[in-house]
C-alpha cells in the first residue's frame, strides 16, 4: 500500500526539477512542501486505520458464520476438576478416630504432605427432550493404587409435568444439604465430622428418586429415594430397596438481598450389613461388622445474603446441619478366622456443624466452622464396642476450622485451612493448602 | 417396598395439591431471566401475561444463584424469556433441571432465547478461558441496542400466539402497535444521539458493544483487562496512557459494577464517569423505552 504513496514524490520530484529550469523554483518548493505535508498526514491516518483494523480482527471479530454446525455440536458438556492438597498434621493421621463412631467409607484424613484429591470428569447433557443424563468419574489414589470411582451415572426426567421428576441410576442421595454437592463445591477441604462419622464422608448408591415441587410461590419440594443398599453406611445384598429415604425442602427470598432454604430428611435401612474400615492392633487385622437396622434423621438450614442479590462482589452464607442416628443389631469383630467376638449393639449418635463463609471482596473469602458429635452406645460386650471405636470414655469429638480462599475466577480457587481438631482425646493442629480448578463446561452449582 | 413408597408419595403430593388450588389459568406465566425481556414481554403481552423477572438491573446476570425462589417460579412458568448466548449458563440449565417443568425445556414453545434472533457481535475465533469470561456465541448484551428489540419482539409474538392461541389476535395487535411506536422512537433516538457519534469512551466491562454500534460511540478500552476479570493496577496504568493518547471523553460504568476502578480512572484523568443502568428497572415499573431514554440522556448530559 505504501508503494502507491511513495511513487507520488518521485513524480512530483521529476515535475519539480523540470520546473526548476523555468526559474519559478520558489513556487515549486512551496508546492512540494505542501504536498509532503499532505502525504505525511495520509501516512499517519493509514497507520491509524491499520491499527484499528488489527484490533478489530483479533479481538472483536464480527459475526463469522455463527450458524455453522460442527461435527462435535452434539457432544456432551465436559467438565474436569483438578484438585490437590498439601496436608500437615501434628499427630499421625493413621491414629485418627472419632470415639463413639466406628469409621468406614472414605472417613480417613488426606495423606500427610502432597496428595491429589478427587480428580473428576463429568459428562452431562440433555439426552432428548424428555431426559437429562450425567456421568461423573473420579480418579483417586488409595495407598498407591489408582482407582476409578463411578460417582454418578444417572438419568433424570425433564418433562414428566405437574412438578414431578424421576431420577434413576447412581447418584448422591438428597438427604442433608452438603451430601448432594461434589466435595470441590464445599467450603472446606474436609467433610463435617458428622458426615465423616455417619456417611463415611458422603452417601451415594444405585437407585431411584421421585420428587415433586408444589405450584406455589414459596419453594416446596418433597421426595423419596429407594436404593440398592450396597454402599456404605448400608451394605449387603437386598432383593428390593435396601435403603429408602424421604426428604422435604422449603425455601424462598426475603426482599432482594436475602435467600433461605430449610430441609428435613430421613434415611432408613432395615437389614443392613455394614463393614467398617479395618485396622490392625499390632497383630491380626480386625474389621468391625454391623448387622441390623439403622435410621438417620436430619435437618438443615441455609441462609445467603448478597447486597442487591448481586453475588459477584460480596456475599455471606450461613449453613447448619444436624443428624441423629439410631441403630439396633449385632456387632462382630471379623478376623482372619473364627471364632469371632460378638456383641449386641444399641447405638444412639448425633452431631451437628455450623459454618459461615463470607466473600468480602470479589476474589477473597473467609470461612469458619464448628463441629460437634455425641453418642450413647450400649451392648452385651463392652470390649467389642471398645475395639470398634464405639466407646467414648467421656470424650466429645469437636473441631474448629477456619479457612481463607483466593478465588481469581469462577474456575479457580486456592484455599488455606486450619483445624483445631479434638476428634479424639489428643488434640491435633491440621493445616491444608488446597487448589481446585475447573476446566471446560461451566458447571452450575446448586443453591 | 418401592411401590408402597410410591403410593405414599402420591398421597402426600395429592393432598398438597389440594391445599394449593390451581392458580387461575387466565394468564400466561412468563419467567424472564433479565428485566429487559420482562419489559418487552409486557409491551406485547399486556395484561394477558403475569411476568416475573428473575434478576434486577442491579444484578450481574452472569452471577445468579439457582435459588429456591427461582425454582418455584420456573416450576409454574409457561414461557421462559432469556438472553441465551451463554449469558445465563451458570444458573439457567440447573434451574431448568430442578424446576420439574417440561413446558420450558429447550425446543418447546415455552423456551425463548432472544439472542437466537439478532446478529451477534464479537464472536470469538478461539474460545479459551485465558481470554476471560468469553462467550462462544458472541457478546451476550444484545439489549443495549434498541434496534434489536424489533426482531426479538417479532419472534416473541409468535411464541405467545402458539402458547395462547385464544388471544392470538390480541398479541398481534399489540405487536403491530409496538412496532409502529418503536420505529418512531428509533428515529427520535437517532436524532437525539447525533452528538454522540464518534465520541471516544472507556467502559468498565465490555457491556456496550451493541449500544456503541447503535449510537456510533467508539470504545477505546475497558477497565477490565479481560471480560469478567478484576481490573489490575498495571492494566489501569496502561488504560490511563491509552486514554491520554486517544482523546477519550467519558468513562462508562455499568450500574451493578464496583465503582472503585472507574472512580480511580476519573481521578487520574479528570474524565467524567457516567453510570448507566444495566437494564430496565422493571421492578419499579419503568418501561422499556424509558430506559433507552435514560441511556441517551445520561450520555448527552454527561459532565464535561
Task: Describe this entry's structure for a reader.
The complex is a heterodimer of chains A (447) and B (304). With 447 residues, chain A is α+β, with helices and mostly antiparallel strands. Chain A folds into two domains: 2-59; 77-440, Beta Barrel (Porin), CATH 2.40.160.10. Chain A is built from four helices and 18 strands. Chain A is elongated, with a radius of gyration of 33 Å. Residues 1-26 and 53-67 of chain A have low confidence and may be disordered. Chain B folds into two domains: 21-187, Rossmann fold (3-Layer(aba) Sandwich); 193-300, Rossmann fold (3-Layer(aba) Sandwich). Chain B has ten helices and eight strands. In chain B, the strands form two sheets. A four-stranded parallel β-sheet of chain B has the order 2-1-3-4, covered by helices on one side. In chain B, helix 6 packs parallel to helix 10 and helix 8 packs across helix 9.
Secondary structure layout plus pairing:
The complex is a heterodimer of chains A (447) and B (304).
Chain A: H1 2-20, H2 25-59, E1 77-89, E2 113-116, E3 119-126, E4 131-142, E5 145-157, E6 164-172, H3 193-199, E7 204-213, E8 219-227, E9 243-254, E10 258-275, E11 279-280, E12 285-305, E13 315-334, E14 341-361, E15 364-378, H4 382-388, E16 398-409, E17 412-422, E18 428-440
Helix pairs in contact in A: 1-2
Chain B: H1 2-19, E1 28-32, H2 35-45, E2 49-53, H3 68-75, E3 79-82, H4 92-98, E4 111-113, H5 149-163, H6 168-192, E5 200-203, H7 209-215, E6 218-222, H8 233-246, E7 250-254, H9 260-269, E8 273-276, H10 288-300
Parallel strand pairs in B: 1-2, 1-3, 3-4, 5-6, 5-7, 7-8
What are the defining features of this structure?
heterodimer; A: 447 residues; alpha+beta; Porin; 16-stranded antiparallel barrel; 15% helix; 50% strand; elongated; disordered N terminus; B: 304 residues; alpha/beta; Rossmann fold; 2 domains; four-stranded parallel β-sheet; 42% helix; 12% strand
Amino acid at each position: 500500500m505504501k508503494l502507491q504513496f511513495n511513487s507520488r514524490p518521485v513524480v512530483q520530484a521529476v515535475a519539480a526539477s523540470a520546473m526548476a529550469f523555468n526559474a519559478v523554483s520558489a513556487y515549486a518548493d512551496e508546492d512540494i512542501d505542501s504536498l509532503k505535508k499532505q502525504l505525511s498526514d495520509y501516512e499517519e491516518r493509514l497507520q491509524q486505520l491499520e491499527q484499528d483494523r488489527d484490533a478489530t480482527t483479533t479481538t472483536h471479530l464480527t459475526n463469522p458464520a455463527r450458524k455453522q454446525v460442527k461435527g462435535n455440536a452434539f457432544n456432551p458438556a465436559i467438565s474436569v476438576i483438578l484438585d490437590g492438597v498439601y496436608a500437615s498434621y501434628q499427630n499421625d493421621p493413621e491414629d485418627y478416630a472419632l470415639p463413639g463412631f466406628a469409621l468406614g467409607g472414605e472417613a480417613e484424613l488426606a495423606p500427610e504432605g502432597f496428595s491429589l484429591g478427587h480428580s473428576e470428569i463429568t459428562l452431562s447433557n440433555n439426552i432428548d427432550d424428555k431426559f437429562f443424563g450425567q456421568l461423573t468419574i473420579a480418579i483417586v489414589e488409595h495407598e498407591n493404587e489408582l482407582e476409578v470411582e463411578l460417582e454418578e451415572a444417572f438419568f433424570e426426567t425433564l418433562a414428566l409435568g405437574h412438578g414431578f421428576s424421576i431420577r434413576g441410576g447412581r447418584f448422591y442421595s438428597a438427604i442433608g444439604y452438603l451430601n448432594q454437592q461434589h466435595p470441590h463445591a464445599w467450603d472446606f477441604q474436609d467433610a463435617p465430622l458428622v458426615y465423616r462419622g455417619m456417611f463415611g464422608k458422603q452417601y451415594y448408591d444405585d437407585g431411584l428418586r421421585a420428587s415433586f415441587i408444589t405450584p406455589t410461590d414459596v419453594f416446596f419440594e418433597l421426595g423419596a429415594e429407594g436404593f440398592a443398599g450396597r454402599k456404605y453406611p448400608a451394605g449387603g445384598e437386598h432383593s428390593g430397596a435396601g435403603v429408602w429415604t424421604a426428604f422435604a425442602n422449603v425455601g424462598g427470598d426475603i426482599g432482594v438481598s436475602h435467600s433461605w432454604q430449610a430441609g428435613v430428611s430421613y434415611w432408613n435401612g432395615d437389614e443392613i450389613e455394614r463393614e467398617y474400615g479395618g485396622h490392625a492392633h499390632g497383630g491380626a487385622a480386625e474389621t468391625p461388622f454391623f448387622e441390623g437396622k439403622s435410621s438417620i434423621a436430619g435437618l438443615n438450614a441455609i441462609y445467603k445474603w448478597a447486597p442487591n442479590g448481586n453475588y459477584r462482589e460480596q456475599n455471606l452464607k450461613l449453613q447448619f446441619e444436624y443428624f441423629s442416628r439410631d441403630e439396633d443389631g449385632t456387632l462382630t469383630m471379623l478376623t482372619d478366622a473364627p471364632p469371632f467376638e460378638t456383641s449386641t449393639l444399641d447405638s444412639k449418635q448425633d452431631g451437628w456443624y455450623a459454618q459461615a463463609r463470607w466473600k468480602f471482596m470479589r476474589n477473597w473469602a473467609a470461612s469458619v466452622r464448628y463441629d460437634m458429635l455425641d453418642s450413647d452406645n450400649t451392648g452385651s460386650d463392652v470390649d467389642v464396642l471398645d475395639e470398634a471405636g464405639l466407646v467414648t470414655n467421656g470424650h466429645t469429638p469437636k473441631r474448629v476450622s477456619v479457612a481463607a480462599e483466593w478465588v481469581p475466577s469462577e474456575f479457580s480457587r486456592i484455599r488455606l485451612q486450619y483445624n483445631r481438631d479434638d476428634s479424639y482425646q489428643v488434640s491435633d493442629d491440621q493445616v491444608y493448602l488446597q487448589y481446585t480448578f475447573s476446566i471446560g463446561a461451566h458447571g452450575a452449582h446448586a443453591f | 417396598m418401592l411401590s408402597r413408597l410410591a403410593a405414599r408419595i402420591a398421597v402426600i403430593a395429592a393432598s398438597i395439591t389440594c391445599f394449593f388450588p390451581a392458580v387461575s389459568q387466565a394468564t400466561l406465566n412468563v419467567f424472564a431471566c433479565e428485566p429487559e425481556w420482562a419489559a418487552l414481554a409486557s409491551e406485547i403481552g399486556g395484561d394477558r401475561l403475569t411476568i416475573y423477572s428473575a434478576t434486577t438491573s442491579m444484578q450481574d446476570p452472569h452471577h445468579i444463584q439457582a435459588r429456591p425462589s427461582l425454582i418455584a417460579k420456573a416450576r409454574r412458568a409457561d414461557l421462559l424469556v432469556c438472553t441465551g448466548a451463554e449469558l445465563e449458563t451458570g444458573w439457567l440449565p440447573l434451574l431448568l433441571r430442578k424446576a420439574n417443568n417440561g413446558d420450558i425445556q429447550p425446543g418447546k414453545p415455552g423456551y425463548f432465547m432472544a439472542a437466537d434472533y439478532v446478529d451477534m457481535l464479537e464472536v470469538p475465533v478461539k474460545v479459551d478461558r485465558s481470554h476471560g469470561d468469553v462467550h462462544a456465541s458472541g457478546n451476550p448484551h444484545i439489549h443495549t441496542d434498541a434496534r434489536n428489540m424489533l426482531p426479538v419482539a417479532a419472534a416473541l409474538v409468535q411464541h405467545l400466539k402458539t402458547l395462547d392461541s385464544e388471544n392470538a389476535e390480541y398479541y398481534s395487535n399489540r405487536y403491530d402497535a409496538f412496532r409502529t411506536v418503536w420505529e418512531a422512537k428509533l428515529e427520535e433516538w437517532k436524532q437525539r444521539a447525533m452528538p454522540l457519534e464518534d465520541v471516544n469512551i472507556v467502559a468498565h466491562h465490555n457491556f456496550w458493544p451493541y449500544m456503541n454500534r447503535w449510537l456510533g460511540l467508539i470504545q477505546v478500552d475497558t477497565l477490565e483487562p479481560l471480560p469478567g476479570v478484576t481490573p489490575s493496577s498495571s492494566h489501569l496504568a496502561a488504560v490511563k496512557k491509552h486514554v491520554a493518547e486517544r482523546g477519550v471523553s467519558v468513562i462508562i460504568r455499568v450500574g451493578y459494577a464496583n465503582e472503585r476502578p472507574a472512580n480511580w480512572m476519573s481521578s487520574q484523568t479528570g474524565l467524567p464517569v457516567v453510570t448507566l443502568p444495566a437494564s430496565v428497572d422493571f421492578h419499579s415499573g419503568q418501561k422499556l423505552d424509558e430506559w433507552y431514554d435514560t441511556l441517551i440522556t445520561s450520555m448527552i448530559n454527561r459532565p464535561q
